[in-house]
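Subject line: Sequence and fold of a protein, written as structure tokens
Body of memo: The sequence and its backbone structure tokens, given next.
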Amino acid sequence: MSAGGVPENGQVVIGLNAVIVAIIKEQPKVLIVQHTPETLTAQHETLTDRALPHDDRHEALPFGPFYPLKHRTLESGLRSWVEEQTNHEIGYVEQLYTFGNEGRDPREEAGGARLVSVGYLALVQDTAPTAIESAIWHDWYRYFPWEDWREDTPALLESDIIPALRKWIETSCTPAQRQDRYERTCITFGLDDTPWNDELVLERYELLYEANLVAEAQDRTTDQMQIGFRGTAMALDHRRILATAIGRLRGKIKYRPVVFELMPPTFTLLQLQKVVEALSGSRLHKQNFRRLIEKKGLVEATGKIESQTGGRPASQFRFRREVLMEKQALGVRHN
């Protein structure tokens, strides 16, 4: 492999993608790099020798190539790219998934290299503005508006997405295909009283993609449809990578206390509950949540009181990190 990370035969390159999550004003945010057409094309030309066919889609996750002669590990390469593109240092990070499907970079069809990307999930508390204007925190529901159930069933589901999926089901070529589409839609989107599973973020996005109901799907088809607004599209398959991260985090907060990586050193129980609700996209029963936190011994009182605007003073708590050595199942969600 050459020093630039591209094999001499030009067939495979390795990329590194970061989904960096923070909580800002009790909302789940993801750090996005806003590219111009020139910088987006230039960044991808580091990975391949061809321009992007859809370089007008400028919102992307922090990403860059793995340089085997420069980066000691994949993770060190990721941290280097994140700091260069966002001026942020990341603390907690875990490998998310390896994305290597054929055709995920559309230039592959024109003879470009296969792009294999290693995705990472990072949780941070430092959300201060930086000198890099192109690095912006965006609400992750900007990309998946149908995933936020905190107030009620998202209007977009009932007015647009579910009718479009029912139409897609009815256009099936065979009864078997129709049944398969119907069953998958029930499982992923809670159709016809099927329970909604908040962890199936990726599966929902992929079903919309298969049904040609999101903008990214239309990059690969001549069957252009009027799709309206179904979340903000991202460069290449970065929205798929983001969906994978959201689903992973929603699942993980149920059995590991990773939510505390997003919390300040001290917090109230109401603040903790609102953060868990923001991540899961659903409301929690206040008393049940507090009983669960108390039962698992995840927090301890600091002895200090916080004066909350418009409400009664509330006790402050801190995360008991020693519980990581005491138990295995330490989630904060209980349905």
Summary: The helical segments are 37-45, 74-86, 155-170, 175-189, 201-210, 238-252, 269-280, 286-296. The first helix runs from residue 37 to 45.
